[in-house]
Amino acid sequence: MNSLRSISAALVYTVDEATVENTGADQTKREVPSMGLSPQGICRLPVASTPKNDIQAPSFTVRSVGLGFLSGLFIAAFSYYNDYGIKQNLFVGNHLPLTVYSALFLFLLLVNPVLNKFSSSLIFTIAVSILYWGVASTLAILIQSWIPLLIVTPVFLVALVGRFILRVNPLRPFSSGELAVTLSMSLVACSLPTSGLMRYLPQILVMPQYFGKSISDWEKAEPDRYVSDINPNIFPQHDENGNVYDGYVQGLSKTGKQIDLPPLRDVLYKVPVVDPASTDTRTPLGKWLAQGGHLVLNYLKRMPLWAWWGPLKVWLPLLIVAYVFIISMCRIVHRQWSENEQLSYPIAEFAHSLLRNDCGRAYSDVFYSRQFWIAFSAVFLIHINNGWYMYDPRLIKIPLTWNMSTIWYNNFSYFQHAAGWTNLLFAGTLYVTVVAFAYFLPQEVSLSLGLSLPLFVLLTATMYQFGRPVNGQEQSFMLFGSYVAMAGVIFYTGRYYYISIIKRAFLMRSDGEADASAVAACRWFVGSGTALILIFCGLGLDWLLAVMAVFVIGVMFLVLARASAETGIPFMGTPFFARGIITGLLGTAAVGPANMYLLQLVTVATMQDNRECLAPYVINNFRLGSRNNVKPAPLSRAMMAILVPGIVVAGIAMLWVIYSRGATVEGLTVPFAGEISRDIQKLKRTGMLEKSTTVSGLARLSSDVRDTSPGALTFFAVGIGLVLINSMLRLRYVWWPLHPVLFLFWNVWATNNFVWSFMIGWLIKMLVVKIGGGRVYQNLKPLFIGLIIGDLCGGMFWIVFGVGYYFWTGTTPLRYGIFPG
To answer: Are 321 and 531 within 8 A, CB to CB?
Structure first.
């Protein structure tokens, strides 16, 4: 029982900021630092106070939801074009999207203060109205169309009704609750484009079939036939002209040219030839804008969207149910993590530090700190300088990278055969945002993330020296074991709370603590989980495999949400997937050819490339909402309201780019197709193919067809043991320096990029606390918040510059990024 209690309490370390502030050189307790700013020296209001008008202001208003809806649709529509059309720095890229947080910062700096000062002025209202109609009218004149006016008129009428009939000023400053709603809707939309859903799901429906003829054994195995025979709507329809598949891969343009507007500088500076007989009075800029609109519409007409109607009917319901499953799961654990365990939520607290206005003044509290602006300016100017250096090498580049490959290969031969991303140990980049986040994290978390890759390299190098190298599948099972163990620890830690919720969800009596919102979420969770299993079965997946797939998906998203809430890692990933885990446990004969392909499709639709997955966005949104008086139930509905249309908008925008330029713009490969083909051919050679197509349900567990991969269960048990043992050690020994998060990301490329930045942040915090004490640590918080927002705005500047450069010159801008990938 003591060991179980050790496991349950291993991740719970609740100490308020006073502990850190009163801690000198010797730390005797584990702390959970917060990004919250001390009001001392900023204003005289107590920390818990909030401006009166902010408390009374509703969060879910027409403008907050409307702005969040428009922002989310813009992210869904433009991100793929920015990333693979213009080919510049990723518009989203991770769970700390620089574009979204930079836009929030600029809104708080430039817009809200103006509204706060002038919103009650009638002259200001008239001026804004004139500007509003002036912009709309100018655009309508330029393109000689009434469409802009038809779009803006309803918005103006709604504002007019609110101002003079409902007595609600539409130009009043946004409250923190309204901004939390808008930000939350924008963030969940970030899970859809590019490295989220749309990068891989459409590709896997087309690319394997197109390139199948070049893959050994594909035509003999015909893996897609097994799926098509079950549900022909899973894949896009073929057409005689080859537009659906050939056009997807190569682009619809017969000339091989990309479909783009001419450079804007040529349009404005070249003297046009005027036809005296023409009645077109539009300016060159107006013609250019009109041409852009016609270009989009014409290509929408040429695109074979009809062929994707079948996949939309199949995948849209599946994705909607999966999103309900994830959001309801996060709602269940939200109160336990936020209030009972008091996790640090670094990303949500960073956003809250920008919104926080305890002083009740025009700007957020952090904007009145001189340290904030010094740090912001320094980092922002470094990025401006280094980005401009790419265009003009005469500037002096400030180095943020290093490469010690010569030293590594000449002096560390012991590690030459280690597995993992060893190159990230001797060649790295200083990520300022990660260094700053590490300053706010508990020291054992930063240290563990910094040591994750070195310890993995040491482990695999040692095993190689003993003649037992670790292969990729074994690494995946070890990490999956760590995830399962972490999920078990999460449940056991809050077992009384979760059991009470489950009992009340099923109308059973319970004396334990339970939140009504969490009880409702539990019912949604059970219902959506059941529906997801049924949808998987409807695709043709066997019921046992469907249950296993939902379990793997649920465990992965739960632990990723926990990792984000506890560590704030902006860039995460998982090197295991449902197909690999299930096939490794049961073997190819027990899974069967159709199920192998279906599992791959389900894996890609729900688990591929978790750098922009939904769960971390959702859990941080709930935390930010609770910090700003936004209830989780309506916030859940608001997030679903943008996700459903966002899927369609992101899909059309992605297809527009692909059919315009061709899928080779990404250079994606389809290695799984060859693997499945070889597995099917192997079943044919061994005479197991026919039996594998007839086995179902629990019969897949019988020894006649089951063929568990060697070492899979062993490494799965190792992953479980590492997390559980480390959790117990953290409770029993105060000096124990490691956190279980080490074993979740110690062979993940995304997180391994940050090992040195986490180590630097850990070292800075340790020196500050030991030398300056807790008071100095608290006083330096605005400095590190300034580093984060300066870093994000520096990356945002070059995205905006790249868009302008692309349309002005017609050439692809140079790519300058502040995050990997």
So the answer is: yes
Long-range contacts of 42-51 (CB under 8 A, 24+ apart): 42/358, 42/359, 42/365, 42/368, 42/369, 43/358, 43/359, 43/360, 43/361, 43/365, 45/358, 45/359, 45/360, 46/358, 47/358, 49/358, 50/176, 50/357, 50/358, 51/357, 51/358, 51/360
Q: Angle 309-335/516-539 helices, nearest 10 degrees?
A: 150
Q: Specify the amino acid at residue 571.
A: F
pLDDT-based confidence at residue 34 (cuts at 50, 70, 90): low
The dihedrals phi and psi of 446, each to the nearest 5 degrees, come to: -60, -45
Compute the distance between CA of residue 447 and CA of residue 450 in angstroms, rounded to an integer: 5
Contact 163, 124 (CB under 8 A): no
In the numeric block, which tokens belong to residue 42? 């900023």
Task: Encode pLDDT of 300-346 as tens digits.
Answer: 888 888 889 988 998 999 999 999 999 999 999 999 999 998 898 99
Pairwise CA distance, residues 135 & 125, whole Å: 16
* Higher pLDDT among residues 679 and 481, named by residue: 481
227 CB neighbour count, 10 Å cutoff: 21
pLDDT reported for residue 331: 95
Distance between CA atoms of 328 and 521, rounded to whole angstroms? 5
Is residue 693 within 8 A of residue 223, CB to CB? The reply is no
Return d(Cα 76, Cα 357) in angstroms, integer: 31
In angstroms, the CA 550 to CA 773 distance is 48
One-letter amino acid identity for 12? V
Q: Is 321 helix (H, G, I), strand (E, B) or coil?
A: helix
Q: What is the mean pLDDT of residues 655-682?
A: 71
Query: Token pair of 722, please?
Result: 């590492």
Cβ atoms within 10 Å of 714's Cβ, excluding its own: 12
Cβ(240)–Cβ(234) below 8 Å: no
Strand partners, 427: 403
How large is the average pLDDT for residues 392-406? 89
Residue 401 three-state SS = strand
Q: Decide if pLDDT at 16 tops 50.
A: no
Q: What burial letters (b/e) apply to 185-206, b meaning 16+ CB within 10 Å?
A: bbbbbbbbbbbbbbbbbbbbbb
Which of 126-140, 279-293, 579-593, 715-729 has the lowest average pLDDT?
279-293
Per-residue pLDDT averaged across 569-586, rounded? 85
Average pLDDT of the chain, as a whole number? 83
CA gap 789, 52 in Å, rounded: 28
Closest alpha carbon to 42 in 361, 477, 483: 361
What contacts 575, CB < 8 A, 6 or more positions away? 472, 475, 476, 479, 747, 748
Which residues lie closer than 8 Å to 276 by C-beta, 6 or more apart?
none
> What is the model's pLDDT at position 20?
42
User: 592: left (phi > 0), else alpha (psi -120 to 50), else beta?
Assistant: left
Across 117-126, average pLDDT: 86
Residue 359, both tokens = 């002083």
If one compares 261 and 816, the residue with the highest pLDDT of the two is: 816
The tens digit of pLDDT for each residue in 59-82 reads 899 899 999 999 999 999 999 999
- pLDDT value at residue 139: 80
- Least Cα distance to 622 among 319, 193, 336, 318 occurs for 336
Q: How many whole angstroms separate alpha carbon 568 and alpha carbon 575?
A: 19
Q: Is 471 helix (H, G, I), strand (E, B) or coil?
A: coil
Q: Whole-angstrom Cα distance, residue 817 to residue 254?
A: 34
Segment holding 478, helix H or strand E: helix 472-493
**Distance between CA 453 and CA 754 in Å, rounded?**
10
The DSSP element (H or E) to which 402 belongs, if any, is strand 401-403
Region 179-201: mean pLDDT is: 89
Angstrom distance (rounded) from CA 402 to CA 425: 10
